[in-house]
Amino acid sequence: MAAVTAGSGAGSGVGDSPEATGGSTGGGGWRRPHGPLQRYYGPSTAEAAEAAPDPTDINGPHFDPEVFMTKVRSECPLGQLLAREAALGREIRALDSDMQTLLYENYNKFISATDTIRKMKVDFRHMEAEMDDLAANMAAISASSARVSAALQDRHRRGAQLAGVQALLRKLQALVEVPGRLRRWAGTDPARALRCHARARAVLRHYRHLPSFRAIEDESHAIMADLAQRLRTRLREETLDPKELTECVEMLLQLEEPQEELSEEFLSQAGARLEAELVTLEAELPAPDPSGTATTPPPPASDILDFVDRGSSAFVGTLCQLAGSYRALFGGDTGRLEPFAAALATRYFSLLERRQTFFLGCLGDVRQALAAPRPPGKEGPGLPDLLATLAASVLGQLKAVLAYVQLFTARDVAFASLPYFKGEFCVTAVREGLVVAFVRWLCRTARGFADGPAERGAPAAPPALLLLLARLCLDYENSTISYILTLTDEQFPPQDSGPAVTPGPALCAEARAAAQRLLDHYVQVQGAAVAQMLRKSVETRDWLGTVEPRNVRAVMKRVVEDITAIDVQVGQLFEEGVRRAQSSDSSRRAFSVYSSSRAPGRYAPSYTPSAPMDTHLLSNIQKLFSERIDIFSPVEFNKVSVLTGIIKISLKTLLECVRLRTLGRFGLQQVQVDGHYLQLYLWRFASDERVVQGLLDEVAASAAHRCLDPVPMEHSVVELICERG
C-alpha cells in the first residue's frame, strides 16, 4: 500500500510503471499514513525507535494481547467491551475487504486507477474523521458507563441500608411479639418458650431504660415466673421418669432458679423414684426377721439371676442415669450426690444379700409346716423329715451357687488363667467370702432365734423350730462343715502361697456354740411354759379354805402330759442319753410333807407325824446334806438331759410359788397329793431321780413351813388318790 500511495503521488500518467514509481524519492507524492491505515500498518521504523515500548498500544511493535485484554477488562465495563469488540470486528472486516480490493484492482490497473486512488484518499480522510468521531463517542460512552456504575453502587448502598432498616424493624416486631409467644408456648412447649426468652432477654435488659422495652421485659418476666411455678409443681409429680426430671430441672436452671434448692429437689425426686424401685425388689424378698418371730412369706417365685438382672437394669441403670444428669446439671457439686448414691447402693446390696438368703425361705417353709392346722387323724411331717428337707435344700442351694460361681474359672474366660485372679478369687471371694461367710451367717441366723428379743405382740419362735435348728447346727459341726469345705477346695483349689484361710475346727466350734445356745433356749422356753401353768394353779387357788383333797388336780395331769409330749418331740432328733441307775421302788417311794431324811420307816422308825418338831430347822439340816441343784445349767445333746432341765425349771417354779402362799391343813394335803403324783411319773424322764425327789421334798417342806395346821395325809390314802387319778 505504501508503494501504491507513493506511485499515485509521483504522477498520474498511464505509462508510469510500478517499478519506476517505487524507485522515485520525489517529494511531491508521499505523505505519512495516518488514521485507520496508520493504525492498521503501524508506525514507521523511526517512530517506533523513538517511542517508548508500550505493550498495550495495538498499533505498536511491542503490542501484547494478554496485557491489553487485562487492561481493557479492568477499565471498561461489560457493555463497552461488547461494543468495542463489535466495532473492531467491523473495522477489521472492512479494512481487509477494502485493502484486498484495492490490492488486486490497483495492482492490475495501476495506471488507470489514479482517479480511483484519489477518491480513496478522500474516502480515507473521511474514514479517519469518522474513526475520530467514533473514538470521541467511545470516550463519551466510557464516561457514561462510569456514571452508571457509580449510580449502581449508590443504589446498592441504599439497598443495604434499607435491608438493615427492614431487619431492625423485624427484630423490633419480634420483640413486641415475645410476650404473646411466651404466653402461647409456656403451656404447650416450655422448651421453645425458654429458647425464645433466652434470645430476647439480653436485648430487653440492654434497652430496659426505654419504657416500651421495660414493659415488654416486665410482661415476659411475669410469664416466665408463672412458667417456673408450673415447672416446680411438675417437678414434685411422682410419675416423672429420669429424662423428664432432668429436663424439668434444666429448664428451671435456665430460668435462673436457685441452684441449691434445685439440687435438693432433684435428689429428693430421684430418691423417691429409686426408693420405689427398691420397694419393688424388696417385695420379692422374705421379711428381714433374724429372730424368727415374724411370719415369713413364701419364697420368691423368680430366679436369683432374674432378680439381679432386673435390679441392674432398673435400679442401677436409673441410679447411673440420674447421677450423670446431676453432674451435667450442677457441675462438680457432688457433696450431696455421693452420700445420696452411697446410701441407696448400700440398701440395694443389702437386698441382694437378703435375696441370696435361701436359708430364710427354707425356715419359712419349716415354720409353716409346724404351724399348719392338721385334720383329726392326719399327722403332718415329722421333725426328722423337716430336718432332712431343710438340710438337703440348703446344701443343694449352696452347691448350685458354687456351680454358678465356677463359671468364672472356665477355660474360655480370659482372666480366669491369671494367677493373681485365680488365687484371690478361689480363696478370698469363694471360700472365705461365700462359703465360710455363709456358714457363719447360718449359725448367727439360727442363734438369733434364741438371742434376739421378740418384738412386742410378735409370736415367739416355736419350740420345735429351736430344737430343729439345734440339731441342724450340731449336724453341721459333726459332718456338714467338713464336707462343704472339702467340696469347695476341690472345685476351687487354693494356692500354696495364697492368703490364710479359716480352719474347719473354728467353724465347727461356732456351729456347736449355736447349737448349745438353741438347745438351752429350748429348755428355757419349754420349762417356762410348764412353769407358767404351775404358777397360775398356785396363785389362783385358795389354799386356806380348800376342801379335803379327793383327786389330783388337773394341772398336774396336764404337766405330765406336756412333759411326755416334749419327751416324744426331743426323742425324734436326739439320742436317749445316759441315766443313773434307778432304785427298785422309785415309783412307789413315799412322799412326805417333811424332808426325805424324816420319812417314816426308812431313816427315823420312831417318827410320828403328830410329834412336835421345828420343820424349818429340819429343812435347813436337809439342805446341808443334799447336793446343790443347778437349775439353769447347760444341757447336753441328748433327750434325758433336755427333759431334766425342763423338769428342774418347772419344779423350781412350783417351789417358789408355794413359798409365797399360806396354806391350811387341806391345802397342805393337796400339795402332798400333787407332789406324789408328779413323783410317780416324772422320775422316769430325768437323768437322775434324786433331782426330782429332792425338788419335790423342798416343795413339801416349804408347804409344811407355810401351813397353819401341818397335819399330813396318810400315805396309803395319798397312794389311793393318785392311783385313782
Automatic annotation (TrEMBL):
| Record localization | Golgi apparatus, trans-Golgi network; Recycling endosome
Q: Which domain of life is it from?
A: Eukaryota
Q: By its UniProt entry, which Pfam families does this protein fall under?
A: VPS51_Exo84_N
Q: What keywords are assigned to this protein?
A: Endosome, Golgi apparatus, Lipid transport, Protein transport, Transport
Output the InterPro entries linked to this UniProt entry: Vps51
Quick one: a GO biological-process term for this protein? lipid transport
Region annotation Disordered: residue ranges?
Answer: 1-41
Q: Where are the transmembrane segments?
A: none
- What GO cellular-component annotations does this UniProt entry give? cytosol; EARP complex; GARP complex; membrane
Instruction: Kindly indicate whether the keyword Nuclease belongs to this entry.
Output: no
Concerning its family, UniProt says:
Belongs to the VPS51 family.
The role this protein plays is: Involved in retrograde transport from early and late endosomes to the late Golgi. The GARP complex is required for the maintenance of protein retrieval from endosomes to the TGN, acid hydrolase sorting, lysosome function, endosomal cholesterol traffic and autophagy. Acts as component of the EARP complex that is involved in endocytic recycling.
- Fill in the subunit field for this protein: Component of the Golgi-associated retrograde protein (GARP) complex. Component of the endosome-associated retrograde protein (EARP) complex.
Query: What is this protein called in UniProt?
Result: Vacuolar protein sorting-associated protein 51 homolog
The lineage is: Eukaryota, Metazoa, Chordata, Craniata, Vertebrata
Q: State the encoding gene.
A: Vps51
